[in-house]
Amino acid sequence: MTRRIIHHPVLDRIDETDTVSFTFDNKKYKALRDESLAAALLANGIRTLRHHEEFGTPRGIYCNIGHCFECRVTVDGVQGVRACLTPIQEGMDVTSGDKLLTSVRDWRANNE
Amino acid sequence: MIICRCEEVTYGELVETADKYGCSPRELKLRTRAGMGYCGGRTCRNAVDSIAHSSTKRDVSQITLKYQPPIRPISFSKLGGVGNND
Amino acid sequence: MSKVIIIGAGPAGLSAAITIAENGLNVLVIDEYMKPGGRLLGQLYEEPNGNWWNGIKESQNLFDKAVSTGVEIKLQTPVSNIEESNGIWNVYTEDEVYTTSHLLLATGAAEAPLPIPGWTLPGVMSVGAAQVMTNVHRVKPGERGVIVGVNVLSSAIAMELKLAGIDVAAITLPKMNMVTKESGNPLDVMNSLLHVSHMAPSAFVKMGSKLMKNDFLKRMGITFFPKNGVKMWDIPIMLRKAVVEIYGESQVEGVTIATISPSGDIIPGTEENIAADFVCIAGGLYPLAELAAVAGCPFYHVEELGGYVPLHNERMETVLEGLYVAGNITGIEGAKVAISQGVTAGLAIVNSTDGGKQEAKLNDSIKAIEETRNKAYIQFHPDVKAGKQKLQNYWNEHWKAVVSQ
Fold this sequence. Notes:
The complex is a heterotrimer.
Chain A: E1 19-24, E2 27-32, H1 37-43, E3 50-51, E4 58-59, E5 72-75, E6 78-82, E7 92-95, H2 103-111
Parallel strand pairs in A: 1-7
Antiparallel strand pairs in A: 1-2, 3-4, 5-6, 5-7
Chain B: E1 2-4, E2 9-10, H1 11-21, H2 25-32, H3 45-52, H4 76-80
Antiparallel strand pairs in B: 1-2
Helix pairs in contact in B: 2-3
Chain C: E1 4-7, H1 11-22, E2 27-30, E3 44-46, E4 52-54, H2 55-68, E5 72-74, E6 79-85, E7 88-93, E8 97-100, E9 103-105, E10 109-111, E11 124-126, H3 127-136, E12 144-148, H4 152-163, E13 167-174, H5 186-194, H6 203-211, H7 215-223, E14 230-232, E15 235-247, E16 254-259, E17 272-275, E18 278-281, E19 285-287, H8 290-295, E20 299-302, E21 307-310, E22 323-325, H9 335-353, H10 359-375, H11 384-404
Parallel strand pairs in C: 1-2, 1-9, 2-5, 9-22, 11-18, 12-13, 12-18, 13-15
Antiparallel strand pairs in C: 3-4, 6-7, 7-8, 10-19, 14-15, 15-16, 16-17, 20-21
Helix pairs in contact in C: 1-2, 1-9, 3-4, 9-10
């Protein structure tokens, strides 16, 4: 976990020993207890949290404070959960969102 | 260049639409879907506003892009109370 | 009477809650974030007296005080709507509808973007996001970043990133277009920076700001502004370069910058790449007033306050019965002003329930806001007072119109 700022010249040192495990797209990762899911993913070097439903472009954390909904993921089967507002929990099963089919539109584009 | 991240509406599309129709911000939004996505326009509303206000004058006493409840996405079951009595 | 409800557990919401609870009323504070403190949490800067303003500690103090005075705080609870019926405000959350006769909106501010080609790539985030990641979550937003947008907030956060050992390659302007406007115009940016020059650690900038009292000198200043920027905390601040694109295959790999003319036009052929694994967009804050809007408050656009603001008076009352506002929803200012406004809103609420016994305290608290504003170290807009005056005039006009109807 090299991305963590353990020591800080002004702020208190953080405790990196109390960890929990979670999965993101079926891979197992470690997080610090009670941190946000967004922080846990970034600390593990994961920047892409989902792909745009329609265009498939990769997206990650943008506002980190619940306003933009860019970091929405599926947590334990619940869709549209904002990673930046979600405290991580032991055993959490997180999946990213993927591009969805746009069959009708694609058919139209090719046939009209 | 994308302006509305949720609906992937581009700057070019917005400027062209604003030029063509002399749109108010609201009309620009309705014509392009900018600001009508998942986040409710929280991220791009000022940008859409700015583009529209290059061809129309701002009315300082009216919010140009109206807010509608719910201001956070809610699942239909929670909204309609369906399934709450299961 | 019913519990007072406050939406927003930032500095304004918590200080209002404490004020109300100290006067013996029950209070419920609702916030969608997982920690109390709002945007105060991320703040970290050294004050002129050498003390550090540590947002985490300040938030903790407010939270502890609120809890000890009996305030109930519900975190992780987004409010999706508010609605008044028969003098009662309904507050809709996902699982419950709360009701109250006195509702305070302390929902703070949201960040406005500076759209740049490539800004949807993972690794591009608002400057506030990088601040929270660094100071609150203690995770580096990346190893090396570029900050787009030169303003008070972005320079303060650049320093915070630096403090945490994160390399900031440059703070620079966005390419000028209809959206970025003043943020992409070197002369406008320079103007807006001059009023905060007291914060500049560089003697060069301080001295420069004294010299640049008139427009001619300002134009000269920007014309001869070093192309590679002036360093602040060892970070180049580039007023004569603009980011034209953020590039990367599946995430940020760097930005392309180009030299711009004093009026912001790109000089062709000057493009160069800066490698970076994250980019911060600093488009400034605007009042987050969506709940006041759905409630039906009249609004006014006041540039000096950061955008559309719900009409309110100096007692933090809106024109709607039982609906109050405090903090950045009333205009973009620092946390200390928000705390003062929270006290006033709290007293106004108490005053309306006890037959006006708080009048004297209330008037004192209004003066205290003004004093806090005067002493503020960071001012987001140089003419915030003029903005407040405009709003007061709109308030007076509003009631005149109501009376004459």
